[in-house]
Write a structure and sequence with these properties.
Blueprint lengths: L9 H23 L4 E7 L4 E8 L6 H4 L8 E2 L6 E5 L2 H6 L12 E7 L8 E7 L5 H4 L1 H35 L10 H15 L7 E7 L2 H8 L1 H17 L6 E4 L4 E6 L4 H17 L4 E7 H4 L2 H17 L10 H4 L10
Antiparallel strand pairs: 1-2, 1-6, 3-4, 4-5, 5-6, 7-9, 7-10, 8-9
Helix pairs in contact: 1-5, 7-8
InterPro entries: Diguanylate_Cyclase, GGDEF_dom, Nucleotide_cyclase, Rev_trsase/Diguanyl_cyclase
EC number: 2.7.7.65
Catalytic activity: 2 GTP = 3',3'-c-di-GMP + 2 diphosphate
Length: 339
């Protein structure tokens, strides 16, 4: 029985293949050492978690199987690397076993799973109604099966590490290093995800396009470091007033975009109001335009319409007499939130 949970991407494929491989390997192990059930676990930080099972263990949830790896195990004097202990009363009840009699003693047999030149590992345990003397006769074959199980666990762990590394690289590829917001690639990916999720459910979405006014003037008069500070402050101020499912991206040098899922016209107007209030409070000069998906038909067209409205606003703005110092505004955004 597979116990490894479903995942996504490489992890999902790795889990599927590991489930199939471990299940097949347990059948081979059962052929060499027939017991009432076998359970394979992988070591974590402090405990062993079940990943595959058959026989008596098959119908039990992982939370009930995990304690079986604990207990006082005695070393098997005849077979190096194997351990055993008696099944206790709670385990008998959990496994739906008849109470022990003098002639019916139930054992758990354990072997560590660790392949050469690999990290991590786990263990396999089996349950028997009597001491499995056949283990002594088939020890080499059983050890080969256990090595195969250990290699599968190691390969599965390494594939999961590769998945995590790939996700980190993908995350970095979608983030703007200066602000920590989405970059253009991440923004496009986010819009595609919202489009795919929304389908024909009728829920609307809003896009707000924002463009810093006079960033070049700040760079020329206060230096590019001040310009970078202004860009970071803008990203922080925008992020502070967004809902948890809203997203912000830096789409160019001085251009930002906000996409709000499940937005009503009133909710979109409120978002624009929060943005204007927060940005005005820290004296950030910015132009913005908002559009609803219901107006444009697709998020790509919604972004274009919001962009047009943003530039209409920008064309009407005069050059200010004095540019604010970015350092004076940087400490003012902590009081803003989406509510």
């Amino acid at each position: 029985m597979p116990i490894i949970k479903e995942g996504s991407g490489i992890e999902a494929r790795a889990n599927l293949l590991a489930n199939k491989a471990l299940t097949a390997q347990l059948r081979v192990l059962q052929a060499f050492l027939p017991l009432e059930g076998w359970l394979v676990g992988r070591w974590g930080a402090a405990s062993c978690s079940p990943v595959a099972a058959n026989g008596l263990f098959e119908a039990l949830p992982p939370r009930d199987l995990s304690p079986l790896f604990d207990g006082d195990w005695a070393r098997d004097p005849l077979n190096d690397g194997f351990y055993y202990r008696r099944v206790n009363e709670c385990e008998q009840e959990m496994l739906s076993l008849e109470p022990e009699t003098g002639r019916n003693r139930m054992y758990l047999v354990k072997a560590d799973l660790h392949a050469p030149d690999t990290t991590g590992g786990g263990c396999a345990i089996g349950v028997a109604f009597e001491w499995p003397f056949s283990l002594f006769r088939r020890a080499n074959e059983v050890r080969s099966c256990l090595t195969s199980l250990a290699l599968t666990l190691a390969l599965h762990a390494e594939l999961n590490v590769a998945e995590r590394l790939m996700m980190e690289l993908q995350r970095d590829a979608f983030l703007d290093p200066l602000t920590g917001t989405l970059n253009r690639a991440g923004w496009i990916n986010r819009l595609a995800h919202i489009d795919a999720m929304s389908g024909d459910d009728g829920n609307d979405a809003a896009i707000v396009m924002l463009d810093l006014d006079f960033l070049k003037t700040v760079n020329d008069t206060q230096g590019h470091s001040a310009g970078d500070d202004l860009i970071r402050l803008t990203a922080q101020t925008i992020s502070a007033v967004l809902r948890s499912n809203d997203s912000v991206g830096r789409l160019g040098g001085d251009e930002f975009g906000v996409v709000a899922q499940d937005a009503t016209p009133a909710g979109a107007a409120a978002l624009v109001g929060r943005l204007k209030y927060a940005l005005d409070a820290v004296d950030i000069k910015i132009s913005m335009g908002m559009a609803l998906k219901s107006e444009a038909g697709s998020l790509k067209k919604t972004m274009q319409l919001a962009d047009e409205r943003m530039y209409e606003e920008k064309r009407t703005k005069p050059m200010p007499r004095r540019m604010p110092l970015v350092s004076q505004a940087a400490g003012l955004i902590s009081g803003f939130s989406a509510g």
